[in-house]
Amino acid sequence: MKLIVPIKMVPNPTLPVRISRDATKPPKPDLKNIPLVINPFDETALEEAVLLREAQIASQVTVVCIGPDSWEAEMRTALALGADRAVRIPCDFQVSPLSVAQCIKAFSILEAAQLIICGRQGVDADRGSVGPMVAALLGWGQATFVSQLKITDKTATVQREVDGGIHDLTIPLPAVITTDLRLNTPRYASLPNIMLARRKPLEKLAAQELGVELAADIEVIQFLAPPPRPPVTRINSVAELKTILSQKGYLS
Question: Which pTM does this prediction carry?
Fold first, then answer.
């Protein structure tokens, strides 16, 4: 069974983000001094894929991303964490989620993959839309917010964390799984694996070869602080509250 793990690089979520103070430009996050890391949800997805390969359920784990040359360092981190292959679709601008989903769909067909495991959302935009889009484009079953996963020959049995508790679900393969952070604890890359990852090739595949025309994502014009809240009035008794509400016309 071949597994595909889509990954993206995001600003390190453990570091504070400041808003730029350039008076000549609209306020935006200043990310120049914040290093990029693998999206934490994607790291959980990669760990689960590697565990499946170590259990001999999967034969190959391939990570795929859409981004610039600067992402290659973190792609080698993915190789050090256990991925067998790393494929980058070159792109120098922020791509729309639909274009990402179209690329993953085409790549999974090219690779004849049976399972796609991805993080449930990126911590930069918090949309959580790529996984469901990929499943819809492929016509595969999907399970989102997965906190427990068991794979058999033809099915995936999962536990999903939903608002009402835990949802048990069994879906046929091939399928798309989006992972919750509680699915596992990602490993640290060991020094020997880091050294080996430096010698592994990083593959490139143009979007045109997949038959996809990349579209730009929405542009964030500026960030504005919420309006200040009105002052709070302290009320000392129920009678006083009733009087205030009556004066404002809320009580007849």
Answer: 0.83
